Every structure is written in structure tokens, then in C-alpha cells.
Amino acid sequence: MLRALNFYGDPSRWAAQKSTLFTVLSFLNVTKYPSSLLFLLMTLGPSLLALWWFERPVRNAIGRALIIFGRVPLFFYVLQWYTAHLIGLGLHLAAGKPTGSLLNAPLGGASANFGFGLGVTYLAWIAGTLLLYPLCRWFAGLKARRRDWWLSYL
Prior knowledge:
Layout: H1 2-5, H2 20-28, H3 37-55, H4 61-71, H5 73-95, H6 101-104, H7 118-145
């Protein structure tokens, strides 16, 4: 409501544009740096609602899977790097793309035909997450059964 009034909360005002889509984008275009009141309301509000939603008792498979990943965060974090690189290597080999630039890409040495589109990236991310789920579930069970000091760090 504050954004619709268009006089308080953000230094840049929204305006009607040539199409409805661009008008909506103008409405959502708030100042991020320095953070305006409307930017904070638009980001923190949904975040707090999501936190409330996820804190409710878990009754579905997706929620239970997220809890498994949440019980072993460092374990998942470390394994996902290796999994992502192996999936990337496999995709490059399957597509016939050069793999030499995989090592230099983080340093800015990627070739012109490096990488894949957003669709392939999302599919690889989903596949990597699904591949790591059984390992994370096993490790979460191990942490629940044993009380070794080093398990609390992973």
C-alpha cells in the first residue's frame, strides 16, 4: 500500500509505462543501495512469512527433505561442490565441449562456448540435489545415532 501511494518509502517514484508489464516492473523497482524502507519491506516481509510457513509442523515430503538437508548443512555444502563439478564435467563431455576451461573459468579464463543455458543449469542443480539426498539422509541418521564430538561440526 505504501508503494501504491508513491510518495514515501523510496526515493524513486514509480510511473505508468507503455505496457502493463513495464508498469509492474516500475512499481517493483525500489532502491537497494542504500536500502530504502520499501526495499526492506518487500524483502523482509516475504522472508518472515516464509519463516513462519516453514516453522509449522512438517506434513509433506518436501518439508521432510528440507529438514534432512538442514540437519547436515556443512556436509551438504562440501559435497555439493564436488557434485556440481562432476556434473559440469559430465555435461561438457556429453556435449562435446572443451573441458580445459573448467579449471580456469573461476579465474576469468572461460572460452566462448563455456557453460550451458539456464534450463540445463536448473536440471543439473536438481539432479545434484537429488543425488546428494541419500548421502545426507544417511549422515543425518549417523549423527542422530552417535555422539562423537567431530560429528557436531559436519
